[in-house]
Amino acid sequence: DRAPGGTPGTISLNVQDIMQLRQIVNGDPEALAPFLENMSTRYPELTQQIQSNPELFLGMLLDGLGGNLPDTEEEAAGGEDLDLHSEEAPGNFPGVELSSEDEIAIGRLCELGFERSLVIQVYFACDKNEEIAANVLFSERQ
Amino acid sequence: PVDQRDKSKKQRNLNLVQKEERQFRLGFHQMHLLTLLSHGYQRNKWLNNKKLQTKLNNIIPNSVFDLLHPEKDEEMPLRSTRKLLDGLTKCIKIWDKYYEVVDSNTTGRIKTYGLYMRPWDKISFGLDGACDIQHCRFSFNETDFVQKLTKFRKGNRDLGAQGFVAMLRAVGVNARLVMSLQPPDFTNLKKISATQEKGKQEENSHSSTNTDKQNEKIFEDNLLAFQPGIDNSSTIKFPFKNNFASKMSTIDDILAELNESEKFPIFWCEVWNKFNKTWITVDPINFKIIEQHRFNSNGKSKLEPITKKQQKYNMLRYVIGFDRKLGCKDITPRYTTQFFAKVFKKRCTRIPELETWYTKSIKYLNHLAGRTPIKIDKYEEQYLDNKLSLEGIPDSLQDFQGHPKFVLETNIGQDEALKPGCSNCGFFRLKNKNKSIKVYLRDDLLKLRSPRGWFMEGRTLKKGAKYSKVVHKKSFTTREIEDERLYSIDQTELYVPPLASSNGEIQTNSYGNIDVYKPTMIPLNCVLIEHGLATKAARFLNIPFAGAVTSFTFEKGRTVKPSITGIVVLRDYKEAVCEMIDGISYSQEREEYEEKQ
Fold first, then answer.
1. d(Cα B335, Cα B92) in Å, to the nearest integer?
2. I want to staple B562 with a disulfide (CB 3.0 to 4.6 A). Which of B150, B159, B396, B549 is the partner?
3. Chain B: nearest CA to A108, how far in angstroms?
4. Is residue B432 very low, low, confident or very high in pLDDT (cuts 50, 70, 90)?
5. H/E element holding B379?
6. Of the candidates B42, B51, B357, which has its C-beta nearest A26's C-beta?
């Protein structure tokens, strides 16, 4: 596909926007329309990318959504009286433990020329999906 | 009179958006569609939460449990179905007592569009002109979801329907979460300013200078409130349209209309009835009804908004069933009676490429869920195909426009012809006129092209081919009216280009190029190398080649330019040319680099 603008086969959203969009898809779908309008002005090439690669976009939104991020199920399940509107910012990863598999994947991503702290954040934000993480990292750099 | 008609047409066009905005709307529609799909997928996944299931399991008494799982009545399977339906009716009542629907009006929260369809001028604002992004400050995760359904036991209708499905799944019923996706209508091409001006006029009769100021205040507050994300140093800027004024006065009108649309649910439930192999519809919240869908009937569902008012904010176009194995499926035809005549045209899938795009997306979600086809899917497919096949000839002229199944004899295009020997499948009677028009199946239409047109498709006329039609056409070069003969595909055959000679001479057209519109147009012993440097490389190597015309570009002033995007050479030369291209581009890069230094 000869997609004008942007590298073909990528979705150029930054980590922050992906996290935000995931959160909205998860819990506040009413805000989808305004948020998407906002995004489509900030990323003029986004629609085109979604048109040529819907799977990647869906993957970014859903793959392991809410699975491995702190602030979800596992950790929160303990506290019954969790404040419904706790405003814990996504992206803080306090004391994340890395398995050897994670280490290897993170190593590989670092070899692509990214800073380790950024790689770890993105890697977990993409729910340990190395491919999507790489994609996000590359589009970040542009 | 002709002038006037032209004028009114122009006037109408002035109120329609331009190409760029159309593309934006279609793209936005698609983007919104995917995110809504993701939302449904995610919610459906949450329904299977163990803690939720355990808690909801307790609210169904044994007597109802037995009704939901009847034995197969060998004598009269209908009796088993009856029991299941009784059980479901009881479940609706149980759920009604268990879960309290709270309307956003009564909770002090600003009334919003919810998941109903937004008009194009209300994408970034709510109905009161305030920016809705403020809501997304809160994160709402699976734990919150479970708590809302088990501890607080109240919320909006959408959540209510979701909880109902979870309850049925908790007691082992094969229940689906059904969602009607409502992205904005991309077929609505009206300009925003036109509707806004109308709003302004109405507004002038009220006084609203104060509200403007208030709105701006709200707007600023919202901006401050919304600074999401990991890194607060990069604040997101909102390109808000500076235009809230028009929105204030008509809130009451919008609310009244929204109420009409909101009578119909966004989420509901389907239950598999194994006794007659169909899905039963259960709407536990809005209409509180159960619907059975019979095979071999194009039955009407109560859940489809029909009137203009009802459809204003709720246009049933994409109904997706999310099952307990996390699979999903488009089941729209179950809820429509005029799928082809009305609904099809409002779906982006009416564009063939987007049909592929849409199926790809749905397929991906099933892949993500690890869901493979099961027997039930086949029964459902049969049902849906059958229901679609029962849809008859449209009853209004307008509905024939773009109808994928039927075509009026009078609407057959210049470049179309009926298959020889086919007959009409019905008549359409014009109102107030004692006349009727023949109706044909679109499948019986043949696409016609000129010999040149067929060549662009990589085909050439058979010997002794007979034309189907002669049309009058303005010649491109002489601008004079000429006759043009059109042929159908069965009068053509695949064009096989002559082989290149052993020393690489390629037969070219009168301009010295070779036409390669389709891969089959490359001579068998040759290859096409598409690269900007290909010509240079071949010249350098001093080998015979031909420039390849792969398409045409149309430019202003009606000039057509062939675009030569590469070359055709003997297969044997392929490697040499590619190496040479690499070499040239390397040395070019080097030169550029050195120049910069």
1. 21
2. B549
3. 24
4. confident
5. helix B375-389
6. B42
Instruction: Tell me which H or E stretch contains A28.
Output: none
Tokens in use for A122? 């993105």
Instruction: Label residue B526 by pLDDT band (50, 70, 90).
Output: very high
Residue B373: partners with Cβ closer than 8 Å, 6 or more residues away: none
Alpha-carbon gap, residue B401 to B183, rounded angstroms: 23
The upper half-sphere exposure of residue A38, i.e. CA atoms within 13 Å in the direction of its Cβ, equals 20
Residue type, B360: K
d(CA B401, CA B394): 10
Structure tokens at B72: 């197969």
Q: Amino acid identity of B461?
A: L
Q: Is B239 on the interface with A (CB under 8 A)?
A: yes
CB-CB neighbors (< 8 A) of B37 in chain A: 58
Q: Which two tokens stand for residue B466?
A: 């007979």
Beta-carbon contacts of residue B304 (< 8 Å; ≥ 6 apart): B264, B316, B335, B336, B337
The answer to whether B115 contacts chain A (CB < 8 Å) is: yes
Distance between CA atoms of B258 and A22, rounded to whole angstroms? 28
Overall average pLDDT of the B245-250 stretch: 49
Chain B contacts of A71, Cβ < 8 Å? Answer: 139, 141
Rounded CA-CA distance A78/B51 in Å is 12
Cβ contact B547:B512 at 8 Å: yes
Give CA–CA dist A77/B166, Å, rounded: 19
pTM of the entire predicted model: 0.75
Q: Do B133 and A31 make contact, defined as CB atoms within 8 angstroms?
A: yes
Partner-chain contact B28 A37, CB within 8 Å: yes
Residue B44's φ and ψ, nearest 5 degrees, are: -60, -35
Name the H helices within B48-141.
Answer: 50-57, 62-68, 77-98
Encode burial over B281-309: b for 16+ CB neighbours within 10 A, e otherwise: bbbbbbbeebbebeeeebeebebbbeeee
Q: What is the 3-state secondary structure (H, E, C) of B229-280?
A: CCCCCCCCCCCCCCCCHHHCCCHHHHHHHHHHHHCCCCEEEEEEECCCCEEE
| Residues on chain A touching B114 (C-beta within 8 angstroms) | 30
pLDDT tens per residue across span B253-283: 788 888 899 999 999 999 999 999 999 999 9
Closest CA to B489 of B521, B429, B424, B445: B445
Strands (E) across B318-372 are located at 318-322, 328-330
Rounded to an integer, what distance in angstroms lies between the CA atom of residue B233 and that of residue A53? 31
pLDDT category of residue B32 using cuts at 50, 70 and 90: very high
Q: Find the CB nearest A33 among B118, B236, B357.
A: B118
CB-based contact B405:B388 (threshold 8 Å): no
Calculate mean pLDDT across residues A71-88. Answer: 36
Q: In whole angstroms, give the CA distance from residue B285 to residue B163.
A: 11
B79 burial class (0-12, 13-18, 19+ CB within 10 angstroms)? middle
* A66 has a pLDDT exceeding 50: no
CA B87, chain centre distance (Å): 37
Q: What is the pLDDT of residue B110?
A: 61
User: H or E element: which one contains B344?
Assistant: helix B344-346
Amino acid identity, position B322: F
Verify whether the Cβ–Cβ distance B143 to A46 is below 8 Å: no
Residue B228 has pLDDT above 60, yes or no: no
B125 touches chain A (CB under 8 A): yes
B142–A55: do the CB atoms touch at under 8 Å?
no
Residue of B nearest to A87 (CA): B138
Report the C-alpha gap between B473 and B482 in whole angstroms: 5
Length of chain A (residues): 142
Establish how many alpha carbons lie within 13 A of residue B81's alpha carbon, considering only the half-sphere containing its beta carbon: 18
Q: Report pLDDT for B6.
A: 60
